[in-house]
Amino acid sequence: MDGTFNENDLSRVVEADRAHVWHHLIQHKPFETNDPRIIVEGKGMRVWDQKGKEHLDAVSGGVWTVNVGYGRESICKAVYDQLMKLCYFANSAGSIPGSIFAEMLIEKMPGMSRVYYTNSGSEANEKAFKMVRQIAHKRYGGKKTKIMYRDRDYHGSTLAAMSAGGQDERNAQYGPFAPDFVRVPHCMEYRKHELDGAPEENFGEWAADQIEQVILREGPDTVGALCLEPVTAGGGVIEAPEGYWQRVQEICKKYDILLHIDEVVCGVGRTGTWFGYQQYGVKPDFVTMAKGVASGYAAIACMVTTEEVFDMFKDDASDPLNYFRDISTFGGCTAGPAAAIENMRIIQDENLLQNCTDMGNRMVGNLQALMEKHKVIGDVRGKGLFLGAELVVDRATKEPVDEKMAQAVVADCMSQGVIIGATNRSVPGKNNTLCFSPALIATADDIDQITDAVDGALGRVFG
Predict the structure, then answer these.
(1) Same domain, 302 and 414
(2) What is the mean pLDDT of each run of 10 residues along the chain (463 residues)?
(3) Cis (ω within 30 of 0) for the bond into 176?
(4) What was the pLDDT predicted at 431?
(5) pTM assigned to the model
C-alpha cells in the first residue's frame, strides 16, 4: 500500500486495523469475527464511527482527555504554525512555546515554580520518582528512598509507575516490581467498613492517620515521598473525605516527606479548578499532569515542582553528578506546549471552569435522582465533571455488582449513542463504578442526554 486513502473506502481501514493495530486495554479475540470500532471524526462533544453512527462522548476521548471538545480549529492552527516554524529541538535548549506555556502554567499554580516537559503521565510520574531517589542520595545518605502510594490509585503503566499502583488487576502478571514502593490504605468513605477500626465519625482524619502508621512502621528516615491522586480516578472516582488532606499535609511536614500530587486526570480544569489539589488547600512539592494539558491535540505532560526542590539540583555545581541527569525525547516537541497555550486560553476565555462546576452540579443532581429510582446505585461521588456512580447488589451490604453487569450498562449506553466508562480489571471484585467525564464544554442538554441513557440502560440491564 502507498498510504493514499479514499474516505469512502473505510472497509480497507477496518481490515488494516484488524490485521495490524494492537489496541490498548482490549482483548482482540472478538475481532476475529467482529469489526473493530474506528472513530472517524469528532466535533464538539460528539464523535462518529466508521458506520456513520453519532455518539455523545461522556468520557472525553475514552480516557478523560479532550477537555475542550473536538474540532478546535484554533488549537490545530497553533500547532501547525509552530511546527512549520520549529517542530522539535531537545529540551536541553528552550523553545518559544515551551517558555510561554511554562509561565502561563506557573501563574495558575501559586507556590510552584519549575516545569519539566515530558510526553506522558506515566513518564511524568517517573521523573518525580527519580528526583525523590536522587534527593535521597544527595541529602540523606541514600536513605529516604521509599515512595508511598495509595490503595486504588493509579500512576501509570511503566514498571516503576506500576510499582506505585494500587490496582492489583492492572499489576497482575507484570511483576516483579521496583523495590521501596509502599502502599497505604484507601480513603474511600463508602467502603470504610473494609478498613479495620474505621470510625463512623472523622473518617477523613482517621484515614490520613493510617498513612502515619505506615510511615512509623517503615521508619520515617526511610520514606522520601507520598504520591496521591487528588481524586482517585480508575480506582472508582473517589474523593477524599473532609479532614483528610489537611492531615496528610501535616504528616508530610512532620516527617520531612515530599508530597507528590498526580493530576494526570484531574489537572487543567476537570474538577472545576485548574488543579484538583486546589480544591483542598494542599501545597504539594511535585505536581504531575498530562491528559487535559492540551486536550489530546498534541502529546504533552509536565512534572511541576517548587523552587526549593529545583534548588536541590544546583546547590553544588562542582559535583558533576549533582544535576537531574534525565531526558525525555519528545519533551522537546514544540507541538505540545503550542497546543497547551491555546487550550488554556480557551478554558479561560470561555469560562469553562465555572461551566465545569455548574454542569457537574447538574449531573450530580441527575445521578442522585437516578439513585432514588434505581436501587442498584449505591453511591454517587466525584468533583466537577469527574463523577462516578457505584453499582451494588444490595445497598445494605454494599456488595458490588459483577463487573460484567457494569460493562453491560456501558454497552447499552453505547447502543443508544452515548459513550460512558466504567472501572474495569483494576480492583479485584470491585470494578463496579460507572465513570463520567464529559468535556468542560458540556451543556445542560448534553448532561441530560447522558443521564437519560444511563436511566434506560439500568432499567434494561437490572430490570
Answers:
(1) no
(2) 68 91 92 92 97 97 96 98 97 96 98 97 98 95 97 96 96 96 97 95 97 98 98 97 98 98 98 98 97 98 98 83 91 97 98 98 98 98 98 97 98 98 95 98 98 98 93
(3) yes
(4) 97
(5) 0.96
Contacts of 131 (CB under 8 A, 6+ apart): 286, 303, 305, 309, 313, 324
Phi, psi (deg, nearest 5) at residue 109: -130, 70
Encode pLDDT of 180-218 as tens digits: 999 999 999 999 999 999 999 999 999 999 999 999 999
Answer yes or no: are the C-beta atoms of 365 and 214 closer than 8 Å: no
pLDDT 10s digits, 23-70: 998 999 999 899 999 999 999 999 999 999 999 999 999 999 999 999
Supply the pLDDT for residue 3: 65
Look up residue 413 and give its amino acid.
C
Short-list 354, 353, 331, 295, CA closest to 74: 295
Q: State whether 132 and 85 are in the same domain.
A: yes
Which grid coordinates belong to 376? 442498584
Give dist(CA 258, CA 268) in Å, integer.
22
Q: Which CA distances in Å does 391 have to 140, 325, 380, 433?
A: 47, 47, 9, 6
Closest to 208 in 3D by CA, of 242, 257, 164: 242
- State the Cα angle at 299 between 419 and 443, rounded to 5°: 35
Q: Could you tell me if 276 and 286 lie in one domain?
A: yes
How many CB atoms are located within 10 Å of the residue 120 CB? Answer: 20
Those residues whose C-beta lies under 8 Å from the C-beta of residue 152, and which sit 6 or more positions away, are: 166, 167, 186, 188, 232, 235, 236, 238, 427
Q: Which domain holds residue 108?
A: 74-349
* Domain match, 113 and 160 both: yes
Number of domains in the chain: 2
What CATH number is associated with residue 261? Answer: 3.40.640.10
* Residue 46 burial (C-beta neighbours within 10 Å; 0-12, 13-18, 19+): middle
Residue 157 domain-assigned?
A: yes
Alpha-carbon gap, residue 24 to 441, rounded angstroms? 27
